[in-house]
């Protein structure tokens, strides 16, 4: 389905990552944004608040992040594509209602422009230490999808993908930018509206009376409805059955929660995509995402000058993690190197998937800046021994 | 396809409220002598009287005993997280402006954890009807002190009696900008129904506090008898004073209190103010969200 | 109804009447209907329903005026009244209003 052209700012622009992210949301058809100011993400909603009045969108600055996330879930149930934008401290506040979104199976997008943490941390400087929180932040068992752009152009392109994935899998999608990409200004090409494919929400074709909100026939993803169409449905954050009614039993919990997890896990190979460069035949494979991917290229270049065969696997979708690929590579490479602007988060996933078959060298960075490429190069050299 | 709320014919011998309830979930979980069922009956009756398109009426409730209202009403109903019913309802309403959204929640949910959202929604005059069922305690979790528990009343977390001053709820709502503020009890069934019907026809942040008996926790912990004893207390102690100054509406423990309609005014809602403002500033370039919402379809 | 003097338009006034229908198995014995029926038509019965509560029963047949207060105040949706033929004021009520006990859905 083609997107609404009123949201597409076609042309060649010079934009920072935050602005590009906002443009991506508007191009994807997002028409409701509830947010709360927090550095370094505020520019996203500033841009949206300036452009929404021209395309039938509603922006409301809520009183806090808890309200923002609740409003986003509510707006999604009225049928509108919705999104919120925050950084670390706000992300923590939103966790309860992200869990609600996961439990009610609500399509929505949460943008986290990561900064140094924990707590108030470094408001204006980069971090990537929320990656595990994106996966495990809310309580209970659930799965969702997280993306990581490396440039303002990708901040635009991946936002469209984020909304599409959200609609397809009925899940909150975490858009894990970082402050560097958010505040970096680069060329962003926005195509014509008719070149942007958006995935429409799968609304049920059943008439009211025959529709139950969480009834699935084989697939893991139920058809959705929206408030106001006469379906008189009920949905709740409590463990519920196919009727959307709360059922307090272990059997219902098993069935319900397993499906929430399976709908992502069983489709992980389709969802998790990445960029590969010279991975075939490599001695060492470097995994990176976000701004670290940009720095890593220099580190790899330095290592290649020393004669090493280095492959680069750039994670675009971080959750679900591309387990199949890593497990397969673990048998063939001398080692993995995982530079991150945190003290080791995604590296733990790589270690888990490598399962001891090859060494995994993390290159941590506490935050506030990016790696010195030489340090990444040194790690690659170590891994190759 | 819509259903207007005419007196829908229920099955022979079935209760008149049946078309508005999820009968497959009745009997409900509320305790004997709890007032919540009465509030639901009054609301359903009011819906019928107003003739609103029921397909466009949505209910959002929070967590707690009152939070279960969403589960029993046969409307688009959302049982959201604790304290967040109002922002959830805000998103729902702003995402599809033609919806008529009612928030049902309890005193702890709306004024404790949800206090911040309450005051801002009132300030912004979001077009919602908020029904706060006040039983002066956190019932579902076992009887803890609430922001509305009267002084000296006992609760499970204030076993020697409450020493915190409670909220004067109508005063709070009015001072934050609610355009319709009323307080009734479960006993005042006719006036409550009329208040619901009246409020459903208004716009803006409309607020109705309904004082309801909680026999299992509040009454038991304070040795006040059953819900029926509390209704008798309401009968003896409630004074109807429409238009009373909200500053005088504090409630003491088992003391005389005032009910009535205190505020009935009009102010542009959030959406109206937004549309008017942008139209003025942006002229023809302004594209308001359609009543059907930001839904994009082929 | 007793009047302290005879109203001038008594022959034009018609008093509504109703039948009380009780869905006994839904009742939780709260006593609201018994307490607040303006015509004192009800009392708590000696018998039990399936859940062990005492549902109400009609004691003053013919007195129900279909005011619907029981229907409004019952928290368990277990009682309501339906209109029967209205009666001219001052005349005795016809027959008896049944207080029908229905085995309700549980």
Short description:
The complex is a heterotrimer of chains A (385), B (298) and C (106). Chain A is of the alpha/beta class and 385 residues long.
What secondary-structure arrangement, pairings included, does this model have?
The complex is a heterotrimer of chains A (385), B (298) and C (106).
Chain A: E1 11-16, H1 17-28, E2 32-35, H2 42-51, E3 58-61, H3 65-77, E4 82-86, H4 88-104, E5 108-116, E6 122-126, H5 131-136, E7 145-147, H6 152-169, E8 172-178, H7 179-182, E9 185-190, E10 234-236, H8 250-265, H9 268-271, E11 274-277, E12 284-288, H10 291-305, E13 310-315, E14 317-319, H11 323-330, E15 335-339, H12 346-354, E16 360-363, H13 373-384
Chain B: H1 36-50, E1 57-61, H2 69-72, E2 76-79, H3 85-95, E3 100-106, H4 107-113, H5 115-124, E4 129-134, H6 169-176, E5 180-185, H7 189-200, E6 206-211, H8 215-221, H9 227-237, E7 238-240, E8 257-264, H10 270-282
Parallel strand pairs in B: 1-2, 1-3, 3-4, 4-6, 5-6, 7-8
Antiparallel strand pairs in B: 5-8
Helix pairs in contact in B: 1-7, 4-5, 5-6
Chain C: E1 14-23, H1 32-36, E2 42-44, E3 56-58, H2 69-73, E4 79-88, E5 99-102
Parallel strand pairs in C: 1-5
Antiparallel strand pairs in C: 1-4, 2-3
Give an overview in words.
The complex is a heterotrimer of chains A (385), B (298) and C (106). Chain A is of the alpha/beta class. Chain A has helices at residues 17-28, 42-51, 65-77, 88-104, 131-136, 152-169, 179-182, 250-265, 268-271, 291-305, 323-330, 346-354, 373-384; strands spanning 11-16, 32-35, 58-61, 82-86, 108-116, 122-126, 145-147, 172-178, 185-190, 234-236, 274-277, 284-288, 310-315, 317-319, 335-339, 360-363. In chain A, the strands form 3 sheets. In chain A, strands 2, 3, 4, 5, 6, 7, 8 and 14 form an 8-stranded mixed beta sheet that branches. Chain A has a 5-stranded mixed beta sheet with strand order 11-13-12-15-16, with helices on both faces. In chain A, helix 10 (291-305) crosses helix 13. Chain A is globular, with a radius of gyration of 21 Å. Chain B has 298 residues and is of the alpha/beta class. Chain B has one domain: Rossmann fold (3-Layer(aba) Sandwich), CATH 3.40.50. Chain B contains 10 helices and 8 strands. An 8-stranded mixed beta sheet of chain B has the order 2-1-3-4-6-5-8-7, with helices on both faces. In chain B, helix 1 crosses helix 7 and helix 4 crosses helix 5. The longest helix of chain B is centred in the N-terminal third of the chain and has 15 residues, at 36-50. Chain C has one domain: Alpha-Beta Plaits. The radius of gyration of chain C is 15 Å and the shape is elongated. Chain C is mainly β and 106 residues long. Chain C has helices spanning 32-36, 69-73; strands at residues 14-23, 42-44, 56-58, 79-88, 99-102. The mean pLDDT of chain C is 84. Classes of the chains: A alpha/beta (385), B alpha/beta (298), C mainly beta (106). Chains in contact: A-B, B-C. Strand 10 of chain A pairs parallel with strand 2 (76-79) of chain B.
